[in-house]
Amino acid sequence: MTEFPLHDTHTAPEAAKPQLEGTQQTMGFIPNIFAKMAEAPAVLEGYASISGIFDKTSLSPVEREVVLLTTSVEHECHFCVAAHTGRAKKAGMEESVLEALRAGHELPDSRLEALRAYTLEVVRNRGWLANDAVDRLLDAGYTREQALEVVLGVTMKVLSNYTNHITGTPLNEQLSSLKWEGKAA
């Protein structure tokens, strides 16, 4: 298997160094996904840009994490499930919702469950949804705008989940308490 380096602010290509330096200052460490993405600075920049845009959507922080965790669990991305578990906790997600998401189970909150089910349908069917999929989301109180914002979140996770799979991104020590073994665990 081809090895991809875990770059730092000294080894990264010049174009990736500012992003890694900023992340180091903001978070106190460089998440290994960023260290791997730094091999292709445009990928790192693209991920950071999409993430920043997704944070500006009309979905609440908890709803955004439902989309990101649902996608990462479905893609079995161990790194992203751990990282977004931490973000979900910071966003104030209820523990019962978080546990169900990590297990790939139905959520105890019906509105968030509608969002999870819609996200799953988008991911599993690559956007080819059942005729009533958007209607079911709207019936749960979401908007057409939010139906499309889910696609943005899925796009963000396809980029990071697939990168993690290709590069074999290990979990940072800082995220070890949030480790995820998979849906069956």
Poorly predicted runs of 5 or more residues: none
- Rounded to an integer in angstroms, the radius of gyration calculated over CA atoms is 16 Å
Q: What is the typical, i.e. mean, pLDDT?
A: 97
CATH superfamily of the largest domain: AhpD-like
Shape: globular
CATH architecture designation of the largest domain? Up-down Bundle
What percent strand?
under 5%
How do the helices and strands follow one another from N- to C-terminus? Answer: HHHHHHHHH
Word description of this protein:
The mean pLDDT is 97. The protein is mainly alpha-helical. The protein folds into 2 domains: 40 residues, no CATH class; 119 residues, AhpD-like (Up-down Bundle), CATH 1.20.1290.10. 62% of the residues lie in helices and 0% in strands. It is globular and about 50 Å long.
Topology:
Elements: H1 17-27, H2 32-37, H3 41-54, H4 61-74, H5 78-91, H6 95-103, H7 110-124, H8 133-139, H9 144-167
Task: Summarize this entry quickly.
By secondary structure, the protein is mainly alpha-helical. It has nine helices and no strands.
Record keyword descriptors for this entry.
185 residues, mainly alpha, AhpD-like
